[in-house]
Structure formats: C-alpha cells, structure tokens
Amino acid sequence: DSKVGLGSTFIVGFPVELPQSGADEQKEQGDLGCCFYSSSEKGLDLSRQSPIKVLVVEDDHISKQVTNILLNSMGFESIIVSSGHEALCENLAQFDMVIMDIGLPDMDGRELVVRIREWEQEHEVQDEAIIVAVTAHVDYKAKGEAALGFNAVMQKPLTMEKLELLVKNV
C-alpha cells in the first residue's frame, strides 16, 4: 500500500513451523491457514429448510464482497456490518455463525467476541453462534483464542476451500 507523501506499507509473510502445544485444544488444517478449536455443540445443520444465517463483521470493502459471494454460493444468508458496534446492534440470536475480522476500526475482534459471548449469556441464547476470526496477522494460531470464545481462526484471504473446511470442522 503506498500513498504519496505518506510512505509505503509492505506485508511479507514467511511460512513458519510453530511448535505444537495444546493439541487437544485445536486442530490445524495443513498450510491453508486455518485453526479450529473445540467445535460448537450444535454444529451447522446444513439439512434444514431455512438458510444458515451469517453475520459478517468486516471493514474492508473487497473482503466484504468476497465473503458475501462465497457465503451466498454455499446457500448461506449473510448480513454484513463494518464495525463491532454495528454487530452489537444486531439481534445476535438470529445468527448461526459470525465471521469477523480481528482488526476492526472501533474495537479489537478479541473484545467483540467476548462481548458477543456475554450477550448470549445475558439473553440466555440456547444455541451459541459459531464465531470465526479472520485475520491477516501471521500469528493466527496464537493461543488463547479458544478461551475468548472463538471456534476457529482463519488467515486471510478467505477462500471457498477454507469455508468448506470450516463447515466440516465446526
């Protein structure tokens, strides 16, 4: 990314083999950039009549479009918001899954997942949403994400292959 008079930003990623710890806590899927934690109790019921409802919390315009296209091609219904505060204004009980960026403009995705889980408890939601963090950060396998309430963490870009893995593993 480059802006005249402001400078340039470069993001470089290197494949790194991280030591395995907490093997019971997570399942990793090869080099796809996906880390699945303990799956939800309900999973995704793909056989039901009504479509799976997904809340997408993403501030990047292109990522919003790509995610929407991928979800729609799977037959899912998506509602897209641009910030954590907008997400918290939604009726969260209606969603089967939340896919969120970690780097949101108004609050960190880690704060948002905690607030969603608190909302679910306060409103006695029977079936908690499956919450997936999508991040461009290299440390997507960072420990502690499961404890915050994430069911999975995926490295950007989100692809059909990653979404298919998600559906199989949650």
Structure, briefly:
With 170 residues, the chain is α/β, with parallel strands linked by helices. It has helices at 61-73, 84-88, 109-122, 145-148, 160-169, and strands at 2-3, 7-8, 26-28, 34-37, 53-57, 77-81, 97-101, 130-135, 152-155. 27% of the residues lie in helices and 21% in strands.
Overview of this protein structure:
- The model is unreliable at 16-29 (pLDDT under 50).
- The chain is of the alpha/beta class and 170 residues long.
- The chain is globular, with a radius of gyration of 16 Å.
- It contains five helices and nine strands, in the order βββββαβαβαβαβα.
What is the secondary structure topology, with strand pairs?
Elements (H helix, E strand, L loop, with lengths): L1 E2 L3 E2 L17 E3 L5 E4 L15 E5 L3 H13 L3 E5 L2 H5 L8 E5 L7 H14 L7 E6 L9 H4 L3 E4 L4 H10 L1
Parallel strand pairs: 5-6, 5-7, 7-8, 8-9
Antiparallel strand pairs: 1-2, 3-4, 4-9
Shape: globular
How much helicity do the residues have?
25-40%
Task: Describe the largest sheet.
Answer: 7 strands, mixed
**What is the number of beta strands?**
9
Low-confidence stretches: 16-29
Topology pattern, helix = H, strand = E: EEEEEHEHEHEHEH
Portion in beta strands = 15-25%
What is the rounded distance between the termini?
Answer: 35 Å
Rg calculated over all Cα atoms: 16 Å
Oligomer: single chain
Q: Which whole number gives the mean pLDDT?
A: 81
Main structural class:
alpha/beta
Number of helices: 5
Widest sheet, order of strands: 3-4-9-8-7-5-6
